[in-house]
Design brief:
There is one protein chain. The protein is an alpha+beta fold and 880 residues long. Among the domains are: 199 residues, Sandwich (Immunoglobulin-like); 149 residues, Peptidase M1, alanyl aminopeptidase, C-terminal domain (Zincin-like fold, Alpha Horseshoe); 128 residues, Alpha Horseshoe (Zincin-like fold), CATH 1.25.50.10. The protein is 40% helix and 21% strand. The protein has an eight-stranded mixed sheet, with no helix packed on it. Strands 17-18-19-21-20 form a five-stranded mixed sheet, with helices on one face. A hairpin with a 4-residue loop joins strand 14 and strand 15. The chain binds O-methyl-L-tyrosine and zinc ion (ZN). It comes from Citrifermentans bremense. Belongs to the peptidase M1 family.
Length: 880
């Protein structure tokens, strides 16, 4: 087994920095092959020197040290040591100026952390610990400094030179070079530092803040993408306005810049005043972007903008506090999107994501608290748990406190901690103070991992009219946490009578009945709530709006679910009732298939599906959500031992039966959604398009020639990517001659558009056809496949292994072998991406013995690699 010694960092070992940096002056001689960086740091001691002078330890990786001066004098070699990842200066004075000159090679930087080349430009990514790959520095978020940056580069290849803050000077230099100097007046941690240089088109915009200041908005993209920035710019303006209206937060610099780059490990980065974005979250045109793409852009643009207050003005003391900025900012971007479109549909989408990606994480070997206690590589903790469960934790605070007190808590947090690097505790304390609540038990959401389970039972006493709900909470063991203390959980609920009417709720001891929704607060392992004045046994509507990230167990009958689905006032509960029915149905079919009996879809299901489909009153977007079956991976979570083939077969049987039995209704619903005007992303018809494409996919499930004809017609006639891709996706899953024809035509049309070609790769990787893995292996050799480009890797390797359960879990283990090979290949190129690709293997315990063995073998093969990156090592070792 592997012997490499990667250090674990523990939260309990946190110590304040020994030295603080007040100002940073950086100068870059930019060149893709060799860039020289001179850094002048004004440093001051931050420890009690009476007890001995501590050395100054700077972080640094992949740097060539050229010179080191203290107060202008070159340091003698005995005064410092350059070690593994550090540079130590012995016995430094109380305060001094350190001048460090280093050299780096952006072109050789395939990890995309630090300064790197992306296509024709140079850019940086410093979160979490990338700044140390640019120069030696105390690279930790609690060291905040004021930065002045001078960039020098060749003027013809790099006419645009950007850094954080305000441009203070620019001019020409000899030999065709030029320079620009930027100053950021706000103190910031090194992870928010950024520079960009290249030949970029500039799309200007402007925003007038609530106090009347004019802010220049600038989007920078490659010239060929100039026409694809409108939506990003519009979203930015909406986000700026929204943060003023909802949270009273105004932007603080004169310029806000967004740069789109093609090579990027994550979605985007909130560098102060100079966001760097994965180009897929900036670029959009109707022909090349789907409605989902448009929405994702709005969300990510919002997310990075909101970080300016929740992340930049107030940052994290250390990386264990990551959710302080990420959970809070996810919550803010979710609320922003909910206000921009349909709130219920947005909530449903967020819950789907949490359940399909965060719940499995929380139930497996990589489970960790929203605030982890330790890590080997912090990049592995930019996780669904830290982000999305963290967002749910903030939402629960709002539910417990109410909107008004929550807002007061936010105000207090900004007032107390602006300009500081703080912990989650400071945030929760501000909420506790503003809401006048004791939130000490609530803190367990940050410290305990695992998804709590609420088991609910009820009892109705007709004689007294008392209805009792009894709720028991439990939380399964997770790594390092065999036992859990009870959580403080908001359970929003209501009661319906048999006619579907909402009952005013009155708990025993209360004077009069109140609202029809209320938030019960769970604090103990078991708690009972007695409602009085109840005439007949009601149906409980539980976890309204998904008020807590928990699993709910209540023995609903088929009739209860139908009543909730048709009558509940809460859209989330209405949707959920349908999902529970669908899960029950499909899991029943899975059991039939496993027992080798002939499974059949009951008539009742087809009828209620038809009722929904023909419902003219409901919002189309909501209807599309309600008619979408639970994903294969969500269904897998419901099984003790996952059987990918049976799940696939059962789900497909439902889809095929619906497609056959409801052909006419589907055709009619699809036609009712046919476009009556040319596409526009903001035409309010995205829900209609989703429903239309969903109908097409049901019609295509039985694979009739007629349906293939409809798909081809839609594919050929589409004036927008949503419809084109909707049709192509169904064709990619169909074993018919039109499939290749359409895929080929699509490729020929879009071969020069990276974003669209990513879609082309993933459509093929997620096809459920039996030959998919062979096609994926072929695509690895395709001239457009590039293992160094994270989006391309995600669209082929990621899509196949994470979104094609049945083909990835091929019983012979060929899918596993493929993924193992790609992870080992990526390990030497981009460790962060390699580690991200590892997640499917972490679920190995959930499968049958044969698959377990095969997946374990791959994990062992990975761990046997002698030069395993910290990122990959940590996840592989923890998975085994
Ligand atoms: N803070 C960014 C996410 C991010 C994290 C790490 C990165 O590189 C390793 C890049 C971006 C956000 O939440 O948007
Ligand atoms: Zn973020």
């Amino acid at each position: 087994m592997h012997t490499c010694q990667h250090q674990t960092v523990y939260q309990k070992d946190y110590a304040a920095p020994d030295y603080l940096v007040e100002t940073v002056e950086l100068s870059f001689d930019l060149d893709p092959d060799l860039t020289r960086v001179v850094s002048r740091l004004k440093i001051r001691s931050n420890h009690d020197r009476a007890g001995g002078v501590r050395p100054l330890v700077l972080d640094g990786e992949e740097l060539t040290l050229v010179s080191l001066k203290l107060d202008g004098v070159e340091l003698e070699p005995y005064r410092y040591q350059a070690g593994e990842g550090t540079l130590t200066v012995n016995d430094p004075p109380e305060s001094f100026v350190l001048e460090v000159t280093t050299e780096i090679s952006p072109k050789a930087n395939t990890a995309l952390s630090g300064l790197y080349a992306s296509g024709p430009m140079l850019c940086t990514q410093c979160e979490a610990e990338g700044f140390r790959r640019i120069t030696y520095f105390t690279d930790r978020p609690d060291v905040m400094a004021v930065y002045t940056v001078t960039l020098r580069a060749d003027k013809s290849s790099c006419p645009v030179l950007l850094a954080n803050g305000n441009l203070v000077e620019k001019g020409d230099l000899p030999d065709g070079r030029h320079f620009a100097t930027w100053h950021d007046p706000f103190k910031k941690p090194s992870y928010l530092f950024a520079v960009v240089a290249g030949d970029l088109a500039h799309i200007p915009g402007s925003f007038t803040t609530m106090s009347g200041r004019q802010v220049n908005l600038e989007i920078y993209v490659e010239e060929k993408n100039r026409g694809k920035c409108d939506h990003a710019l519009r979203s930015l303006i909406e986000a700026m306005r929204w943060d003023e209206e909802q949270f009273g937060r105004e932007y603080d610099l004169d310029t806000y810049m967004v740069v789109a780059v093609d090579d990027f490990n994550m979605g985007a980065m909130e560098n102060k005043g100079l966001n760097v974005f994965n180009s897929r979250y900036v670029l959009a045109s109707p022909e090349t972007a789907t409605d989902d793409d448009y929405q994702a852009i709005e969300e990510v643009i919002g997310h990075e903008y909101f970080h300016n207050w929740t992340g930049n003005r107030i940052t994290c003391r250390d990386w264990f506090q990551l959710s302080l900025k990420e959970g809070l900012t996810i919550f803010r971007d979710q609320e922003f999107s909910a206000d921009m479109q349909s709130r219920p549909v947005k909530r449903i989408a967020d819950v789907r994501l949490l359940r399909s990606s965060q719940f499995p994480e929380d139930a497996g070997p990589l489970a960790h608290p929203v605030r982890p206690d330790s890590y080997v590589e912090i990049n592995n903790f930019y996780s669904m748990t830290v982000y999305h469960k963290g967002g749910e934790v903030i939402r629960m605070l709002q539910t417990l406190l109410g909107r008004e007190a929550f807002r007061a808590g936010m105000d207090l947090y900004f007032e107390r901690h602006d300009g500081q690097a703080v912990r989650v505790d400071e945030f929760v304390q501000a909420m506790a103070d503003a809401g006048k609540r004791d939130l000490s038990q609530f803190m367990r959401w940050y410290n305990q991992s695992g998804t709590p389970v609420l088991t609910v039972s009820d009892d109705f006493e007709p004689a007294s009219g008392v209805y009792t709900l009894t709720v028991t909470q439990s939380c399964p063991p997770t790594p390092g946490q065999p036992e859990k203390e009870p959580f403080h959980i908001p359970l929003a609920m209501g009661l319906l009578d048999r006619q579907g009417r909402e009952l005013p709720l009155q708990l025993e001891g209360e004077k009069s009945p109140g609202a029809t929704t209320r938030v019960l607060e769970l604090r103990q392992e078991t708690q009972s709530f007695r409602f009085t004045g109840v005439g007949s046994k009601p149906v409980p509507s539980l976890l309204r709006n998904f008020s807590a990230p928990v699993k709910l167990v209540y023995p609903y009958s088929e009739d209860d679910l139908t009543l909730l689905m048709t009558s509940d006032s809460d859209p989330f509960v209405r949707w959920e009732a349908g999902q529970v029915q669908a899960v029950q149905l499909i899991m029943g079919l899975v059991r039939e298939i496993q027992a080798e009996r002939a499974p059949a879809v009951p008539e009742t299901f087809i009828r209620s599906f038809a009722t929904l489909l023909t419902d003219k009153r409901q919002d189309r977007a909501f209807l599309a959500e309600a008619l979408t079956l639970p994903t294969e991976s969500y269904l897998a979570e419901q099984m003790e031992v996952i059987d990918p083939a049976a799940i696939r077969e059962a789900r497909e049987l439902v889809r095929t039966t619906v497609g056959e039995r409801l052909r006419e209704e589907l055709v009619a619903a699809r036609e009712a959604c046919a476009p009556k005007s040319p596409y526009h992303p903001d035409d309010g018809l995205a829900g209609c398009r989703r429903l239309k494409n969903l109908c097409l996919s049901y019609l295509m499930a039985p694979g009739s020639r007629e349906a293939v004809g409809m798909a081809m017609e839609q594919f050929r006639g589409a004036d927008n990517m949503t419809d084109s891709l909707g049709a192509l996706a169904t064709l990619a899953g169909c074993d018919c001659p039109e499939r290749d024809e359409a895929l080929e035509a699509f490729y020929r049309k879009w071969r020069d558009d990276r974003g669209v070609i990513d879609k082309w790769f993933s459509l093929q990787a997620t096809s459920r056809l039996p030959q998919t893995l062979d096609r994926v292996l072929e695509l690895l050799e395709h001239p457009d496949f590039d293992i160094r480009n994270p989006n391309r890797v995600r669209s082929l390797v990621g899509a196949f292994s994470q979104a094609n359960q049945v083909r990835f879990h091929d019983a012979e283990g060929r899918g596993y072998r493929f993924l193992g090979d790609q992870i080992l290949r990526l390990n030497g190129i981009n460790p962060q991406i390699a580690a991200r690709m590892l997640t499917p293997f972490s679920r190995w315990r959930r499968f049958d013995a044969g698959r377990q063995e095969l997946m374990k073998k791959e994990l062992e093969r990975i761990l046997a690699e002698p030069d395993l990156a910290r990122d990959v090592y940590e996840l592989a070792a923890k998975s085994l």
